[in-house]
Amino acid sequence: MRRSLSGASMALVPLLSVTVPTSALASTSIYGTVAAASATTSANAAADEQPEGEEEEDLVIIDEGEEEEPPAEGEDPGGDAGVVDLDLGLDDDNTVDDGAAAEGSGEEALGTEEDQIKAEKGLITVVQRQRMLKKKRFELSPQFGITVNDPYVRHYTIGLDFNYWLTNRMALGVTGTGLIGAKTPRYDNIRFQEGLLLTANRTLWQGSVNFTYNPFYGKIAIFNRALLHWEGGLVVGGGATQTQVIPRYESLHEPFSTVTGGGHFGLVGRFYAPKIDWVSFNFGVRSWVYADKLEPINRGPDSDLIAMGVGDDPALDDPAEAKKASDFQVAFNVTFFLGVSFYLPTTFKYSTPR
Predict the structure, then answer these.
(1) Cα gap 137→123, rounded to integer Å
(2) Which of 59, 169, 179, 292 has the fewest CB atoms within 10 Å around its CB?
(3) Residue 210 in contact with residue 174, Cβ under 8 Å?
(4) In CATH, what number is assigned to the domain containing residue 168?
(5) Is residue 111 one of the residues assigned to a domain?
(6) Do you find a cis peptide bond into 345, omega within 30 degrees of 0?
(7) What is the pLDDT of residues 290-304, one digit of tens each?
(8) Final residue in a domain of this structure, among 18, 38, 67
(9) Alpha helices in the chain (DSSP H)
(10) Model confidence over 309-329: pLDDT tens digits?
């Protein structure tokens, strides 16, 4: 006697002979569990009803595809019946496609060298390169300043610096400054209130050869939006200065001038614009030290000097004679200035990668 199972009953047969893990049973739907239990009960009942002594019946499983008509002559008897096409994501060469081709290689994603440079500029690094490179570049810097150390004579300065940068930190250059000096109100107040005549000089111009060294470099965050790069340095130099006396009796005597030597030292700071490679904004302080000649004390009518036996020397009415009779004294001129620097060539290139 042959018994056959077809249709959905055929799918339940493997469940009878294969031990299913507990975890798999737990995840099986309630319908699959009931169907498996029913199939097991039916099979056990059929085995109990079989009479003793009778041979065990063969159990033949007939697939639904076997109930179809046999293939005609010339046809492939195998066909595609019962074949399940599982798309495992394999390529033609039986290799798994992991999506690498869609994403592309790392080198292709980076693009050209110019794209890489632009991408690097957008990165935020802890230690950044200097904003401005000045090596082998010329610097032309017009300046405007004011003297701050003399309370009786105030000078306004207009100057020009011309430097050549040997490295990013050291430069050689020249400085030329013209000064416009005038007496302050305090000068006249002392003269009329105290009856005193002050001896003072005004500076006409100053020039020197300079050496600049920048040991300081840093950054300032502006409202956490941008970085302002700055640089600080020392300037020392020596040159010439021309001064002119302010006569105590301007209606009687002519002034005389003196050209003398001296030197200066100072501090200079530079701020660099974020996107301009040829401009910086500067500020600084310079202290000029030089030897100067003041008007002789016995030049002009002075009753106090006459009482002291010094008296007026008529020969000193001549400016040349008054200059000869004057002695050199140390003088200072401290100037605070602001300026703008222009660099040539207007562009530069970094020699090392970021």
Answers:
(1) 28
(2) 59
(3) yes
(4) 2.40.160.20
(5) no
(6) yes
(7) 999 999 888 877 645
(8) 67
(9) 13-17, 22-27, 30-49, 100-103, 106-110, 113-121, 185-194, 303-307, 319-325
(10) 556 778 888 999 999 999 899
Give the list of residues 6+ apart from residue 196 with CB closer than 8 angstroms, or none.
Answer: 190
For residues 159 and 287, state if they share a domain: yes
Residue 108 per-residue DSSP state: H
Distance CA 25, CA 33 (A): 8
Q: Does residue 215 contact residue 234 with C-beta atoms inside 8 Å?
A: yes
Domain co-membership, 189 together with 311: yes
Grade residue 260 by pLDDT with cuts at 50, 70 and 90: very high
State the pLDDT at residue 126: 59
Domain boundary among 67, 99, 116: 67
Give a yes or no: residue 225 inside a domain: yes
Residues 70-83 have pLDDT tens digits of 555 555 554 444 44
Closest residue by Cα to residue 43 from 25, 56, 28: 56
Domain that holds residue 177: 138-344
Does some domain include residue 95?
Answer: no
CA atoms within 13 A on the CB side of 102: 3
- List Cα–Cα distances, 45 to 34, 41, 188, in angstroms: 17, 6, 134
Closest C-alpha to 3, from 50, 70, 65, 68 = 50
